[in-house]
Amino acid sequence: MERGDKMRKKAIYLILLPGILLITLFLIVPLFSTILVTFKGEQGFTLARYFDFFSDSYNMSVYLRTLRLSVIATIFCILLGFPTSYYISKTNKNIKGLYIMFAVFPLLTSPVVRSFSWMVILGKKGIINNLLIYFKIVEKPLTLLFNEFSIVIGFIYLFLPLMIMSLIGVMDNIDDDLIEAAESLGASKFTAFMKVIFPLSMPGLIVGSILVFTGSLTAYTTPQLLGGNKSKVLATLLYQNAMSLSDWNTTAVIATIMIVTTIAISSIISKFAATLQGRGEA
Amino acid sequence: MKKQNKFLTIFSLLVYMFLLAPLVIITVTAFGSDSYLKFPPSGFSLKWIENIFKVEMFMKTFKISMEVAVLGTTLALIIGIPVAYVLSRYKFKGKKFLQGLFLSPVIVPGIVLGFSLLKFLIINNDLPVFTSLLLGHTVIILPYIIRVISSSLENFDFSIEESAVSLGASRLKTFFIIVLPNVTSGVIAAFILAFINSFNNVPISIFLTGPGISTLPIQMMSYVEYYFDPTVAALSVILMAMTAVLMFIVEKTLGLTYFAK
């Protein structure tokens, strides 16, 4: 029996080996080779490249813009997604399927198509400018494209379905009786919402927020198509440094900054949510 | 049935208008007769749909995108199905760590991985561009394969497998005759989701292009930088039709509620 067990253990690792090799050779090793060079100076470990990067006011402004736009996109996705998901989770089954279908479809559609659609909408001859001119609100078409505004719209559009799907997942499991119980015990609709629905939705809200935030922070297609040259974000700055300037060192620094920021913000969101949840239960 | 709050109903409908209107607008624009992006268009025309087939680079990159997506997904299935099976079936040392490792491609920003692959595979190790592109795609779609197959194995009763083995069938034979046929719908769904992910990918592909090698999304992005006509809108309509068909198959095999997890 023991021999058989040992053989099975060996077989298990053998079956996993191709997968382990694939991820190690084509993800872990390339990634670490990118990260490690940024800390290598003439005399061993150095942070000089990071000081250099952040002391450049242009780089700093790009970094802060990326954070700012990601925060705004996350807040709007919560504000739009939370009520919508709650509505969907409480609606009857047939309509719910339809709502889920229309949230999944954009998720599976190419980000190029989705960003491009906003180029059509926000352009000089787009529907918004045409309406504004038709109703004589403005005389000349407004510049709605290639600025921070269009990037944020693009981010919200890109990631709202993710927020909705993350929230529906947990809201589906909230028992209607709990809300009714709270209300029958004298809680107002608002109190019932704050004390019952909100804390119970927290896990979905955390996952959704992390997905939207890290997604916006690292998105390339949308800021490239909707941002133009004046509103660079980290991802488009990384691409420019790599392909137009062939500055491998700065590119690697930006790549590392993106990874570190992604991890840091994800854990901050989880921590923040944990304290918020703790207060809700007290 | 409890009565729904009116405000909430209207709010949700408006949010969904925001989600769907752009896709409707792009579709209408694709059939417009104007030579620039205009909404509403001045007239109806099919010339932009026809124009797609006249732009040689679209045809060429469509073929490359298809090849990469089909080959990458097949490779990821061959590697991923056994992994998903072992991870859901057995307990062993280092399982948690390996689960994390296999899902790690989802966490790493695509643009960072794309650059790292360009530098490590193409520049440092002289790997051909197409091979690098294919491997990069295989890596990023592996987690989708493992997740979907694992979730369909959740419903599989492993005692059936045990009885086959105790009746004398070999483990390998049992896997192919008993386990695999029971997760066919999971395999189909995994294939489609991985295919879509590969086909739509931008951040990996944009670094792994070279002379004569590029993918359709990358080609579309560079096209809209220089031309402001509705050809890309027309192409978008075709891609959305493709997505709709694939989504229908996912709904029939996996169910769309899979995404609400």
Shape of chain A: globular
DSSP strand tally of chain A: 2
- Helix and strand succession of chain B? HHHHHHHHHHH
Within CATH, the superfamily of chain B carries the name MetI-like
Helix/sheet category of chain B: mainly alpha
CATH fold-level topology of chain B: MetI-like fold
Which homologous superfamily in CATH is the superfamily of the largest domain in chain A?
MetI-like
The separation of the N and C termini of chain A measures 53 Å
The shape of chain B is globular
- What helical percentage do the residues of chain B reach? over 70%
Radius of gyration of chain A: 24 Å
| Class of secondary structure makeup of chain A | mainly alpha
Beta-strand proportion of chain A? under 5%
CATH architectural arrangement of the largest domain in chain A: Orthogonal Bundle
CATH topology of the largest domain in chain A: MetI-like fold
Q: Total strand count of chain B, please?
A: 0
CATH architecture of chain B: Orthogonal Bundle
Quaternary structure: heterodimer
Question: What does this entry look like structurally?
Answer:
The complex is a heterodimer of chains A (282) and B (261). With 282 residues, chain A is mostly helical. Chain A folds into two domains: 1-37, no CATH class; 49-281, Orthogonal Bundle (MetI-like fold). Chain A has helices at residues 2-37, 48-55, 57-90, 93-108, 111-122, 127-134, 148-171, 176-184, 189-218, 221-227, 234-244, 248-281, and strands at residues 40-41, 44-45. In chain A, helix 7 runs antiparallel to helix 10 and helix 9 packs antiparallel against helix 12. Chain A is globular and about 70 Å long. Chain A starts with a helix and ends with a helix. The model of chain A has no long low-confidence stretch (mean pLDDT 91). Chain B has 261 residues and is mostly helical. Chain B has a single domain (55-259), classed as MetI-like fold (Orthogonal Bundle). Chain B has eleven helices and no strands. Chain B has helices at 6-30, 47-54, 56-89, 95-107, 110-124, 129-153, 158-166, 171-182, 184-200, 216-226, 231-253. In chain B, helix 2 packs across helix 11, helix 6 (129-153) runs antiparallel to helix 9 and helix 9 packs antiparallel against helix 11 (231-253). The two termini of chain B are 25 Å apart. The model of chain B has no long low-confidence stretch (mean pLDDT 92). Chains A and B meet through helix 1, helix 3, helix 4, helix 5 and helix 7 of A and helix 1, helix 3, helix 4, helix 5 and helix 6 of B.
